[in-house]
Amino acid sequence: MTLAKVFEKVTNGGGVPVEFAAYDGSRAGGSDTDVRVEIRSPYAVSYLVRSPGLLGLARAYVTGHIEVHGDMYTTLSRLSHALSEISVADRLKVLASVIDDPLLRAAAATRLDPPSVEVRKTGRLRRHTKKRDAQAISHHYDVSNTFYEWVLGPSMAYTCAVYPTKDSTLEEAQFAKFDLVARKLGLRPGMRLLDVGCGWGGMAMHAAREYGVKVLGVTLSKQQAEWAQKSIAENGLSSLAEVRHMDYRDVPEAGFDAVSSIGLTEHIGQANVPGYFRFLHRKLKPGGRMLNHCITRPDNTRSSMNPDGFINRYVFPDGELEGPGFLLTQMNDQGFEIRHEENLREHYAMTLRDWCRNLDDHWDEAVAEVGSEIARVWRLYMAGCRLGFDQNMVQLHQILGVKLPASQESGMPLRASWGI
């Protein structure tokens, strides 16, 4: 059996419009398709056979032993069901198929090191200490501000956008997202906003510029903080906005009128969620509002993010996703009256579509800036996440709560005064 045919069978590729081509000249699958998977090295077989689940294919792609020609999202969409079904038996079939080829047999017998950008597994008991959280955040965000500028665009917003229409641009959608958060929080001139996990300062600058709010943003990424402070100064907002390189748990100020948390909860860890909401509740004035915006599981019955999966190994070390019901319960139990909740799942799929397009448009520059392995991780990760949102494997929820004063008056309008 040819090598291309082996990969076609392992991925159950018969009938799927994907072509497989191998370095030995073999081809399988549809020849007139717009997607081609190229097996460039016999060592791709080693990764496929020796790594659990889909991790072997990811390792082979990140290291360049497999190449994907064509749109990555389209490739994953067409192969997603088959790829999720790769079993130990399937890997044994690969071994049986290549046993007569000395080169492939030797490659399959070789135990390769994981790609250099893969985070090695560490003890789970020490997760979410301040030191380890700082290391995890640095791994993902301190890659290159230039790289992020190419992927995220001028807004430098690395969170789900909100598209007013299907034809809205990424920049229009990111502006709409920040403005939606601001309106839910009821921001007005003179208020004080705490923005935890502020990234490159997009929300802080929007609140300061558009609403005259005094904002403190905090991030564990040194590169983000430096970029944000420079941008704040360049936009003439230094009298209103500040971004600090610090853990949100170390913020000494209190008495804020509002708190925004956009994309931080994924890094908290389930055991720390009650303390996280309790801390933010204490930072608010009575009557203050808190908006929590984060990726979630679609329900509360599944376990959190696989610690041995691709995303935890390559993208978000120690990341954990919770169900929306769990977050609502914990937020409520820590003193917030829940006033509004919505799922923006489709919007995140559209956001990732635009980020993927940006990366493809700057592919050569991205590889030169961060290296081939990191660029490949991002291409695979963002396309896979887009598919996850499209298929309801993950969601994006915004939850709005109020810290009620002694009078129990929420200060909320009788009906929601915002729209998507």
Structure report:
By secondary structure, the chain is α/β, with parallel strands linked by helices. It folds into two domains: 3-109, no CATH class; 130-403, Rossmann fold, CATH 3.40.50. It has 17 helices and eleven strands. It has helices at 3-10, 43-50, 55-62, 72-84, 88-98, 102-109, 130-141, 145-152, 170-185, 202-211, 222-234, 273-283, 310-314, 324-333, 345-361, 363-370, 372-390; strands spanning 19-22, 27-29, 36-39, 66-69, 192-196, 214-219, 241-245, 256-262, 284-296, 336-343, 395-403. Strands 7-6-5-8-9-11-10 form a seven-stranded mixed beta sheet, with helices on both faces. Helix 12 (273-283) links the parallel strand 8 (256-262) and strand 9. Helix 4 packs across helix 17, helix 12 packs across helix 14 (324-333) and helix 16 crosses helix 17 (372-390). 45% of the residues are buried. This is Class I SAM-dependent methyltransferase. One of its GO terms (biological process) is methylation. It comes from Actinocorallia aurantiaca. One of its GO terms (molecular function) is methyltransferase activity. Belongs to the CFA/CMAS family.
